[in-house]
Write a structure and sequence with these properties.
heterodimer; A: mainly alpha; MetI-like fold; 0% strand; B: mainly alpha; disordered N terminus; disordered C terminus; cell membrane (chain A); transmembrane helix (chain A); transport (chain A); MetI-like (chain A)
Chain lengths: 271, 289
Amino acid sequence: MSGKLTPGRLMLMAYVYLVLIFVLAPIVVILPMAFSEPDYLTFPPEGFTFKWFGAFFGNARWMDASVFSLKIAVLTSIVTVVVGTMATYALMRGAGRLGTLFQGLLIAPIVVPHIALAVALYLFFRQTGLSGTVTGYVMAHAIIAMPFVVFTVAAALSSVDATLEDAAMSCGASRFDAFRLVTLPLILPNVLSGALFAFILSFDEPVISFFLAGIRDKTLPRMMFDNIEQNLTPVIPAIAVLLTGVSILVLVCAAVLRRMAQSRSIPAEEG
Amino acid sequence: MSMAGFLQPDGRNLSKAGILLLMAPFFLLIGFAFLYPLLSLLSISVTEPQTGLQNYERILDTPVYGKVLLRTLWIALLVSILSLFLAFPVAMAMVSSSGAMAVFITACILLPFWSSVLVRTAAWAVLLQRNGIVNDLLQAIGIIDAPVRLLYTQGAVVVAMTHVLMPFMVLPIYGALRNIPPDYGRAAAICGAGPLRSFFEVTLPLAMPGVLGGFILVFLTALGYFITPALLGSPQEMMIATLISQQLREFLDWPFAAALVGVLTLFVTAITLLFSRVFRFDRMLGGQV
């Protein structure tokens, strides 16, 4: 397959452009609606206003939900990265049969549909009083995000030479210091991009948010779900504009981290 | 960055106690907030209101519920097939392009990963509404005379779910295609195979693990999908996830909802185990970030 412009390749590219239009169109269509005057969603947008951003930032319920979701996402990202990195490190340092169990349990939340986990937690959290609490959401989101963090961290750990830790320890460093001062700096870009990924997964997570929400403590996705289901106001496109901005920012951060990871993996390969 | 031996243990080993200590938080978390809740939910499905399989019998004996199961399977299959036909050429274009073009296609495929499912579902609600763009477009071309109902139909669910899940098909196929040495295509051409024959006899068979992996990933995700059917689907044509939600939240019939979760979970687990050899999550998802 070369880049030459044969008729076959021309047809392929035409088809691919159509698919890309299908992929992008809904996103491209909804964003300008954030600046449209009328109370309903219409395309092309009519007039120009920032009032829907005002409606979002000026409404206590939207703000409470956003802060609540941010809090959950930050904590999820911290919990997932700490718990995930500890377990992944153990896995890569000779976990044996426990490692097999770990990998099985790690994959399970990807296989089991989110609706199943959501219903199970809905029931369990009602009995234990964890419904609608930050703790409850963070545990649920950490379970969903864990595999992605572990895969990312494991990819970095497998390219770090373990003899570096040996060297540190034979110079008198403890195992923890050897990890903290030698290995951790080398895998840090992947750890951080795992944290970013966990943050996004939690912040966007709609299904568990839907079932675990109490009457008062709603996450941002749950508030959005209710708005879309009931009347679909232009606040949703306004949020879409904000979320897209954040996503692009995060993507740029992730690209920078990846570049850092690449530049750091070179000494390990030489060693 | 070598992906070989991805999750294999290597390096200087820790003591048994050290490993247990480091893994303990993970096991506690997954035990407390995943295994125990899921197992107790499944046990409710066979112990309440009485011990036995009557909740499962009810699913099979009531035609309405059987229909929901069949519809769910059908929609998931349709979404997977549509995704495959959209995704394969895109993956091919990603492999064969270079420079700015490759970056552009990759960004288009990855951007939806980072944009909210709810936003995309809302976008489809806007596009498909009675006075929406799709209706305008269809009238302009002359396919329809008056606006038709597109929203709250099975078609809306299939289109929006394909839109959301298609990127999950592109990545595994892209991974498989990228690993095919370009020499193979050239060798086929030298041996006299045309582009079509070379595609069907060389490229496609070698890409099969990626195709199968992507297909199963999309199919299984679609089976349990909740948000899109709940917002864009018709209440008369439920999928299993929306039925579970209704039984749980409107009828408060926990044991029956638990049995529906049981059916879904067992089915999904069985398919995963059946295809566990092609279904390598670490390979499919590890390169995503």
